[in-house]
Amino acid sequence: MMAAQEIAASAHAAVAEDKKPMPHSVLFLCGMNVIRSPMAEQLAREILPPGVYIASAGVRSGERDPFVDVVMQETGLSLGNHQPRTMDELDDTGFDLVITLTPEAHHQAMELTRHLSLEVEYWPTDDPTAVTGSREQRLDAYRAVRNALKKRLIERFSRS
User: Fold this and answer.
1) Which of 9, 58, 115, 134 could be stapled to 32 by a disulfide with Cβ–Cβ 3.0 to 4.6 Å?
2) Does some domain include residue 68?
Protein backbone atom coordinates (compact mmCIF):
# COMPACT_ATOMS: atom_id res chain seq x y z
CA MET A 1 0.00 0.00 0.00
CA MET A 2 2.84 2.38 0.85
CA ALA A 3 4.43 1.89 -2.59
CA ALA A 4 1.18 2.92 -4.32
CA GLN A 5 1.01 6.12 -2.23
CA GLU A 6 4.64 6.92 -3.03
CA ILE A 7 4.00 6.37 -6.75
CA ALA A 8 0.91 8.61 -6.63
CA ALA A 9 2.81 11.32 -4.74
CA SER A 10 5.67 11.09 -7.23
CA ALA A 11 3.29 11.37 -10.19
CA HIS A 12 1.54 14.37 -8.59
CA ALA A 13 4.91 16.07 -8.02
CA ALA A 14 5.90 15.46 -11.65
CA VAL A 15 2.65 17.04 -12.87
CA ALA A 16 3.15 20.02 -10.53
CA GLU A 17 6.72 20.47 -11.81
CA ASP A 18 5.47 20.35 -15.41
CA LYS A 19 3.12 23.29 -14.77
CA LYS A 20 5.06 26.49 -15.33
CA PRO A 21 4.69 29.26 -12.76
CA MET A 22 2.59 32.29 -13.63
CA PRO A 23 4.91 35.04 -14.90
CA HIS A 24 4.71 38.55 -13.45
CA SER A 25 5.09 40.13 -16.90
CA VAL A 26 4.53 38.89 -20.47
CA LEU A 27 5.51 40.43 -23.79
CA PHE A 28 3.97 39.22 -27.04
CA LEU A 29 6.31 39.87 -29.95
CA CYS A 30 5.60 39.58 -33.68
CA GLY A 31 6.69 41.21 -36.93
CA MET A 32 4.93 44.59 -36.87
CA ASN A 33 2.63 44.62 -33.79
CA VAL A 34 -0.47 45.03 -35.95
CA ILE A 35 -2.22 41.62 -35.94
CA ARG A 36 -0.93 38.70 -33.90
CA SER A 37 0.76 40.34 -30.92
CA PRO A 38 -1.98 42.94 -30.21
CA MET A 39 -4.59 40.17 -30.47
CA ALA A 40 -2.61 38.04 -28.03
CA GLU A 41 -2.15 41.00 -25.68
CA GLN A 42 -5.88 41.73 -25.47
CA LEU A 43 -6.85 38.07 -25.15
CA ALA A 44 -4.24 37.62 -22.41
CA ARG A 45 -5.73 40.54 -20.49
CA GLU A 46 -8.97 38.54 -20.33
CA ILE A 47 -7.32 35.22 -19.40
CA LEU A 48 -4.37 36.01 -17.12
CA PRO A 49 -4.78 37.25 -13.54
CA PRO A 50 -5.11 41.04 -13.11
CA GLY A 51 -1.65 41.43 -11.50
CA VAL A 52 0.26 40.20 -14.57
CA TYR A 53 1.76 43.02 -16.66
CA ILE A 54 1.04 42.38 -20.36
CA ALA A 55 2.38 44.21 -23.42
CA SER A 56 3.02 43.67 -27.11
CA ALA A 57 5.50 44.93 -29.66
CA GLY A 58 6.87 44.27 -33.12
CA VAL A 59 10.31 43.84 -34.59
CA ARG A 60 9.53 46.80 -36.86
CA SER A 61 6.65 49.26 -37.01
CA GLY A 62 3.52 48.77 -39.07
CA GLU A 63 0.06 50.22 -39.69
CA ARG A 64 -2.99 49.28 -37.63
CA ASP A 65 -5.12 46.60 -39.34
CA PRO A 66 -8.91 47.21 -39.29
CA PHE A 67 -9.70 43.50 -39.68
CA VAL A 68 -8.20 42.94 -36.23
CA ASP A 69 -10.69 45.41 -34.75
CA VAL A 70 -13.58 43.59 -36.44
CA VAL A 71 -12.70 40.11 -35.16
CA MET A 72 -11.83 41.31 -31.67
CA GLN A 73 -15.11 43.22 -31.38
CA GLU A 74 -16.92 39.98 -32.24
CA THR A 75 -15.72 38.63 -28.88
CA GLY A 76 -16.43 41.83 -26.98
CA LEU A 77 -12.79 42.93 -26.92
CA SER A 78 -11.21 46.06 -28.33
CA LEU A 79 -7.69 47.19 -29.06
CA GLY A 80 -8.78 50.65 -27.91
CA ASN A 81 -6.17 53.25 -28.79
CA HIS A 82 -3.46 50.66 -29.49
CA GLN A 83 -0.83 51.95 -31.88
CA PRO A 84 1.79 49.57 -33.28
CA ARG A 85 5.16 49.91 -31.56
CA THR A 86 8.57 48.32 -31.65
CA MET A 87 10.65 46.87 -28.83
CA ASP A 88 12.64 50.12 -28.74
CA GLU A 89 9.44 52.05 -27.95
CA LEU A 90 8.54 49.99 -24.87
CA ASP A 91 8.73 51.75 -21.52
CA ASP A 92 9.90 48.58 -19.80
CA THR A 93 11.94 45.67 -21.09
CA GLY A 94 12.09 43.68 -17.85
CA PHE A 95 9.75 40.87 -18.87
CA ASP A 96 9.71 37.43 -17.28
CA LEU A 97 8.34 35.83 -20.43
CA VAL A 98 8.49 36.80 -24.09
CA ILE A 99 6.13 34.89 -26.35
CA THR A 100 7.18 35.17 -29.97
CA LEU A 101 4.67 34.62 -32.75
CA THR A 102 6.88 34.83 -35.85
CA PRO A 103 10.36 33.49 -36.72
CA GLU A 104 11.74 37.04 -37.02
CA ALA A 105 10.40 37.96 -33.58
CA HIS A 106 11.79 34.75 -32.10
CA HIS A 107 15.24 35.54 -33.45
CA GLN A 108 15.13 39.02 -31.88
CA ALA A 109 13.95 37.63 -28.53
CA MET A 110 16.74 35.05 -28.49
CA GLU A 111 19.23 37.88 -29.03
CA LEU A 112 17.82 39.56 -25.90
CA THR A 113 18.65 36.48 -23.84
CA ARG A 114 22.33 37.26 -24.35
CA HIS A 115 22.10 40.11 -21.81
CA LEU A 116 18.69 39.70 -20.14
CA SER A 117 17.39 36.92 -17.96
CA LEU A 118 14.06 36.00 -19.50
CA GLU A 119 12.15 33.01 -20.75
CA VAL A 120 11.24 32.84 -24.43
CA GLU A 121 8.49 30.67 -25.89
CA TYR A 122 7.89 30.36 -29.62
CA TRP A 123 4.25 30.02 -30.68
CA PRO A 124 4.29 29.85 -34.51
CA THR A 125 1.19 31.71 -35.65
CA ASP A 126 -0.22 31.97 -39.17
CA ASP A 127 -0.24 35.30 -40.97
CA PRO A 128 -3.87 36.00 -41.91
CA THR A 129 -2.85 38.60 -44.49
CA ALA A 130 -1.62 35.75 -46.70
CA VAL A 131 -5.24 34.70 -47.30
CA THR A 132 -6.94 36.17 -50.34
CA GLY A 133 -10.55 36.09 -51.41
CA SER A 134 -13.71 37.77 -50.27
CA ARG A 135 -13.91 39.99 -47.20
CA GLU A 136 -15.55 37.13 -45.29
CA GLN A 137 -12.82 34.65 -46.29
CA ARG A 138 -10.17 37.07 -45.12
CA LEU A 139 -12.01 37.70 -41.85
CA ASP A 140 -12.22 33.93 -41.34
CA ALA A 141 -8.40 33.81 -41.47
CA TYR A 142 -8.21 36.52 -38.79
CA ARG A 143 -10.78 34.64 -36.68
CA ALA A 144 -8.70 31.48 -36.97
CA VAL A 145 -5.65 33.34 -35.64
CA ARG A 146 -7.69 34.87 -32.80
CA ASN A 147 -9.14 31.48 -31.84
CA ALA A 148 -5.77 29.71 -32.02
CA LEU A 149 -4.17 32.34 -29.79
CA LYS A 150 -7.00 32.13 -27.28
CA LYS A 151 -6.72 28.33 -27.15
CA ARG A 152 -2.97 28.49 -26.67
CA LEU A 153 -3.28 31.12 -23.93
CA ILE A 154 -5.80 29.01 -22.03
CA GLU A 155 -3.62 25.90 -22.37
CA ARG A 156 -0.48 27.72 -21.23
CA PHE A 157 -1.90 29.79 -18.39
CA SER A 158 -4.80 27.72 -17.07
CA ARG A 159 -4.51 27.20 -13.33
CA SER A 160 -7.00 24.35 -13.00
Assistant:
1) 58
2) yes
